[in-house]
Amino acid sequence: MSQAASVLLHPHAARDPSFVSRVLLSLVAIALCVPLFPLTEFNPARLLTPEALKSMGKFLAEFVPPAVGGEFLLMVARETWRTVAIATAGLTLALFGAIPMALMATRPLSLSALNNAGKMAWIPTGIRQGVRTLMVVLRTIPELVWALAFVRVVGLGPTAGVLAIALTYAGMLGKVYAEILESSDRHASDTLMRNGASRLQAFLYGLLPQNASELTSYTVYRWECAIRSSVVMGFVGAGGLGQELDNSMRLFNGGEVATMLLVFILLVAAADQVSRVLRRMLG
Q: How confident is the model at residue 46 (pLDDT cuts 50, 70, 90)?
């Protein structure tokens, strides 16, 4: 029997069984979102007024042509390298905090849960909840706020940016690492721990091999986000390309701003390529 004939004989087979629930969820989402737009004063029509179009046109015209002076490009190259260094150093410090927190917060690596049919003892449960609370606190405070605090403590410069990224990203990475590990197949890690392996060995030989690609991809993505964050934190004195971008914008030098924005786009594109290569190597 052909597929068309089967559909004619059984019309319900061609119907999406989740169609009604999807439509209802979509309608509920729309009903909840529509009242939010007036609260945000969201009005796209303002962008199409003659005054707005004139202002945007004048602003974009200042970007042409981009600045290409030799001394300026040398400065951009130096600050770009400093920006990458801030992001890389901050992410590296974040990993020193995120990995231990992720291991302590991951239920599949709990020996008490393994021996008690999935129920953790109260001491490991308290430690796990404490670590998760710490990760919530770290990632709740934006890196820009941390940067403002550290600028007052250590002064202007890259150190404030490195510390800000390290604290915020330790919470983000630890949370996502723990969720990735908890959603993976536990058979290998459970078998290793039942045969006397430590939690670290169960992680290295049981959970890590099957999640290496996803963990690496997310880490590189966070490195890309750290590059963006380091540029933003430059506006509060944390050094790097963002600080020079802020100076050029204050001086209304659109050509210099355009050049630095182009360099920033190339940085993000390069990070995306690095992630793709690493995923291919691990996949």
A: confident
Is 114:194 a contact under the CB 8 Å cutoff? Answer: yes
Helix (H) or strand (E) holding 50: helix 50-61
For the record, the structure tokens of 1 come out as 């029997």
Q: Cα separation of 175 and 169, whole Å?
A: 10
Tell me which amino acid residue 250 is.
Answer: R
Residue 235 buriedness (CB in 10 A; 0-12 / 13-18 / 19+): middle
**For residue 250, how many other CB atoms are within 10 A of its CB?**
8
The rounded distance, in Å, linking the Cα atoms of 79 and 243 is: 9
Question: CATH for 70-282?
Answer: 1.10.3720.10
Quick one: 143 exposed, middle or buried, by C-beta within 10 A (0-12, 13-18, 19+)?
buried
Q: How far apart are CA 102 and CA 135, in angstroms?
A: 9
Annotated domain spans of the chain:
3-59, 70-282
86 contacts 240 by C-beta, under 8 angstroms: yes
**Residue 62 has which token pair?**
């200042």
- What are the tens digits of pLDDT across the range 78-106? 888 888 899 999 999 999 999 999 888 88
First to last CA, the chain: 41
CA distance 232 to 279: 28
Average pLDDT of every residue of the chain = 81
Q: Find the length of the chain.
A: 283
DSSP conformation class of 65: S
Closest by Cα among 270, 249, 250 to 259: 249
Neighbours of 282 (CB within 10 A): 13
Burial class (CB in 10 A: 0-12, 13-18, 19+), 121: middle
